[in-house]
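A favour, since you know our structure tokens better than I do. Go ahead and set the record down below.
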Amino acid sequence: MRRLIVLAAVLAAGCVVPAGQPPGDCNQLAGCPACSACPAPPATVQRVNPLEPVDFGAIAGWKQGEQSAAWPALLASCQALRFREGWRGVCAKAMELRSPSDDEARRFLEEQFAPWRIANPDGALDGMITGYYEPVLRGSRTKSGPFVHPLYAPPDDLLTIDLSATNPELRGMRLRGRIDGKRVVPYYTRAEIARGAAPIAGKELVWVDDPIEAFFLQVQGSGRVQLQNGQTLRVGYADQNGHPFQSIGRFLVDRGELKLGEASMQSIKTWAAANPQRVEDLLDQNPSFVFFRELPNTDSASGPIGAFGVPLLAGRSIAVDQRYVPLGAPVFLATTFPASSTPLTRLVLAQDSGGAIRNPVRADFFWGSGAEAGALAGRMRQQGRMWVLLPKGMKPPG
């Protein structure tokens, strides 16, 4: 059992659940837009109470939070929360207030909710705020022309082992592997999958024209593929091969190809465009590999489905560590815009989760879909503070 615990800890390092992945599973990818150094922080012992009740007056920027713009996201959360104890009354009233002004929205929140300041284990109030987005790729249902890079559904021989079945303390820990004779061994690495080692023929969902864009789709965990016939295919995380994420940005920095401060998603794409013959070797440095599933595309204007089961809203949805912040809850975020000192203070909703989002004051900010959102997400690595709003009388997790 001790070896299993150690192995689980190793496999869990540096992992994040992307948009659409069920909470508790570990994808190791989303939330690392810079792809230069995104390991999960080591486990820490909580030395202070992570949530402390405060007054609304103690929230930095509360009066400038543009609360009305978050109302569609709040109503989306309420679709899932309205039958839960403590949320019924609040959500019923929120759904009556369909299009409030900022003043009306603030007044409602102050009447119905109590704010809780979030602190890290060492008592620090500041934490890391990163960004993620939904990529848009070009593709085809068949392998043809430039469309030669497949996105795969999970292979039939991929095993998922839930360790909590033998030890409840390992809740959420899952190992991936395959059967080799009478042994369970690690599943194939990215390089082995690319070289045909895995029995994955016939599992192609779609073919795309750019291996780097396909890689960053795995980094984000969900996205859209614009097909040749004009249709749009939506794909989301289905499973992962179990290998820990290794940063290709860090690899380029270590090789002297990029400077440490320049290792971003955009700079990696620029390097790849200038060095197409070396892209395969670059991608092989990351043994982690993500498998996808096709998602319903009933509303092309909505965002991907987050771990909470509702569509994410650009600029108003975040991924959080749900041990401290309940999924679906409003959160007031005080940070800055990517690579900037310009304040970004607004009401957001905790509608996604991530395995590398492993501290109380830690969030991944959803910027939306497409290249512009990707550019913002790729530059975002800011410090910020967070306050979670819970219905009055409700106690926080733990």
The chain has one domain: 2-391.
